[in-house]
Design goal:
The chain is mostly helical. The protein contains 26 helices and eight strands. The strands form three sheets. A four-stranded antiparallel beta sheet has the order 2-5-1-6. It has a two-stranded antiparallel sheet with strand order 3-4. Strands 7-8 form a two-stranded parallel sheet. Helix 26 links the parallel strand 7 and strand 8. The radius of gyration is 31 Å and the shape is globular.
């Protein structure tokens, strides 16, 4: 058992060790251990992929089963025209939202259909406009959620009861009737589960359809939609109104109905501003809180010899097994960092929704921005500069006893300490990049999903719906993957001047991962929230920021060497070139990233011919709860007879149900 031994100079030793956390004899062993395990792990994943893929197409190519029409195949990427091609595609132009404007923060006097038209009319030359004010849905979304939960619960009960149709259980499944259910069963009483759930879904479906039909009589909300005759006029109107706020309202292009975060549209402007501020506070607090464990990882996990220096028994263990602990050092710190960052996207998504983001595309861009800022601050700044700050502070404190404070600050050469810390921290980032090579191979091998699905099929009594969802292609997390690529680019650019090995490692990672991601996007993942190239502006801006940071670090490196100020003067044009290129991008590309037409651009004839016949101006744009079809029980063949006997009629088409009379767009 390891025991701590008392030391006379623990505070001084701790301060000394924390000054230079990467000065260690284990660094070389850690690098080669990380290199060996990442390469061997990647090769092993590749071999397993080749062996398992032909026998598990539902895991390695789920899109072939669920998307067979070829309409969702990823297009060829062209950075200069990807956004324009998206606007010109029939997939976009045939959607109702392509010619719909979203109007938010509408004052009380304009909360009518005609009021919305009056707000947008000054920015359009067309007289053929249609407005739709949103009305309170009250409990409708919650009713649909409750209904879907009841249907799924019914499916689970039927799946368990009919598991062996030739020898059904002697007793039917029992459950307790819930409080507040509008059924004939007494609350709290034990009832037949199948009959109770059938009755519950029946009554919930009736309430949903009655609520849908009565929506027009509900309170008007501070947002609505204006529909134009075609996509071109909608974009022209949005461009003209982009900097205008008639009577405090905001006019912008509408995202797809399934991309809108509907609960945030009705938030008052003051509430949204307050939540944005609180969201920034929460992100700042998270950054500050993670600084302490991040610094400890930089000191001890990334260099176990420092832990051994204050723990003699552990130091003896390090000396007995240097290769083993070298391998652990090369893996542990990057692994802990990676695992923590797996949770960050979920945290930032919830903060973005709380802050009032209006669309899921906007939310994903916000998540990517927050992730990049968090990575850069906590890793490149806090992680990399931590040892330099402690080393410099300790040197100043020691020197202060013999000279005044200002002289001690100047004599301890801050730039030299800073650049020394950067050189010391670079092996960690090499190990980090090597582990990401293994992560890319794990992504394409789908071993985690394969194991999870195998266990679920054998240990759980899954319903047909759960089996279908289990084999459905998952959504690709663009925010996390884009941020990972940007972070690696930043690491390569910043550390290249004094650690050239990061360049081949990063190049190898990008080369392999580009092929792997192409496969995943073609056969495994789907795009849940299509941005149509709208995120490219964010990517270009971050690459420019990474280049700027690299130039700043290189300039500091030149200053620290104090060889020639001519070198610094020669680097000055780099900053001017970056600034000029950014200005060029703003003037040339920013508007085209958002608007297809500003002063009139001919829509392609093929797209016009493929437009839907029912896309007239009276098509309404609204909450999916108003028009989405209700799910019906999905049961196996052996359970259909039991369900038919219990309900008597197809679920979802009960007596007294009538479809909504108003025509609502479902696209």
């Amino acid at each position: 058992m390891f025991t701590l031994q008392p030391r006379d100079n623990d505070p001084e030793d701790f301060l000394q060790y924390i000054q230079s956390p990467f000065n260690t004899q284990l660094t070389t062993k850690a690098f080669w251990s990380s290199f060996g395990y990442s390469i061997s792990g990647a090769v092993l994943c590749a071999v397993l992929f080749c062996l398992l893929r032909p026998r598990n197409k539902t895991i390695y190519a789920p899109r072939l089963k669920h998307i067979s029409d070829g309409k969702r195949v990823p297009p060829a990427v062209s950075n200069a025209r990807i956004r324009c091609e998206y606007f010109e595609s029939s997939e976009y132009q045939n959607k109702a939202f392509s010619r719909t404007l979203m109007v938010t923060d509408i004052p009380d006097r304009y909360r009518t259909d005609a009021g919305i038209v009056e707000l947008v009319r000054p920015f359009s030359t067309s007289r053929d406009l249609s407005g739709t004010i949103a009305h309170s849905l009250k409990e409708l979304p919650e009713l649909i959620t409750t209904y879907e939960g009841a249907v799924r619960e019914l499916e689970v009960v039927l799946s368990k009861y009919s598991g062996h149709p030739k020898r059904l259980p002697a007793k039917r499944p029992i459950c307790k009737a819930r409080e507040g259910d509008d059924t004939s069963f007494a609350p709290g009483s034990k009832v037949d589960a199948i009959e109770y759930l059938v009755s519950r879904t029946h009554r919930l479906s009736v309430r949903i359809h009655e609520t849908r039909n009565a929506t027009a009589d509900k309170e008007a909300l501070p947002y609505g939609f204006a529909t134009c005759p075609n996509m071109e006029q909608a974009h022209e109107l949005a461009y003209a109104a982009r900097k205008q706020h008639p009577y405090g309202s905001k006019i912008q292009l509408a995202p797809g109905p399934n991309h809108v975060i509907w609960k945030n549209l009705s938030l008052p402007k003051e509430t949204r501003r307050r939540r944005v501020f609180m969201g920034h506070i929460a992100v700042s607090a998270l950054v500050a809180v993670w600084t302490v464990p991040n610094a400890l990882i930089a000191v001890f996990l990334a260099d176990l010899s420092k832990l051994g220096a204050i723990w003699p028994t552990f130091q003896a263990e390090l000396e007995r097994h240097p290769r083993t602990w070298g391998a652990i050092q090369g893996i542990l710190a990057p692994l802990v960092t990676t695992l923590f960052y797996l949770l960050l996207p979920t945290i930032f998504r919830r903060l973005s929704i709380y802050a009032g983001d209006l669309s899921k595309t906007e939310r994903e861009r916000g998540v990517a921005r927050k992730l990049y800022v968090f990575f850069i601050f906590n890793n490149l700044i806090v992680f990399s500069f931590f040892s330099a700050a402690w080393k410099y502070a300790a040197a100043v404190i020691r020197a202060q006893s013999n000279q005044n404070l200002w002289a001690a600050i100047k004599d301890n050469q801050p730039f030299e300490n800073l650049m020394g810390a950067f050189c010391d921290v670079s092996p960690f980032w090499l190990n980090y990049l090597l582990q990401r090579n293994l992560g890319a191979a794990l992504d394409v091998s789908q071993l985690v999903k394969l194991g999870r699905d195998w266990l679920s099929r054998r240990l759980l009594n899954l319903t047909p719906r759960e089996l279908l969802e289990l084999t459905a292609p998952p959504a690709f997390d663009y925010a996390s993957h884009y941020n990972n690529f940007l972070f690696y680019v930043t690491i390569a650019l910043v550390f290249a001047p004094f650690q050239p090995l990061v360049l081949p490692v990063t190049a190898f990672y990008f080369t392999t991962d580009s092929y792997l991601k192409k496969y995943l996007l073609m056969y495994v993942f789907v795009t849940k929230h299509e941005s149509g190239g709208g995120i490219w502006g964010f990517i270009v801006n971050r690459v420019l920021a990474a280049t700027l940071l690299s130039n700043v670090v290189a300039t500091m490196f030149v200053l620290a060497r104090r060889e020639s100020y001519v070198q610094i003067i020669l680097m000055a044009p780099l900053f001017a070139i970056l600034g000029g290129f950014k200005y060029f991008c703003i003037k040339t590309f920013d508007d085209d990233q958002c608007f297809y037409s500003k002063r009139g651009r001919k829509v392609s004839d093929d797209a016009v011919m493929e437009k839907r016949n029912d896309e007239s101006v009276d098509v309404r744009f609204g909450h999916p709860a108003l028009y989405s079809k209700l799910i019906v029980p999905m049961v196996s063949t052996r359970a259909r007879g039991i369900l038919r006997d219990a309900q008597g009629e197809p679920l979802g088409y009960w007596p007294g149900w009538h479809p909504p009379t108003e025509k609502i767009a479902a696209t």
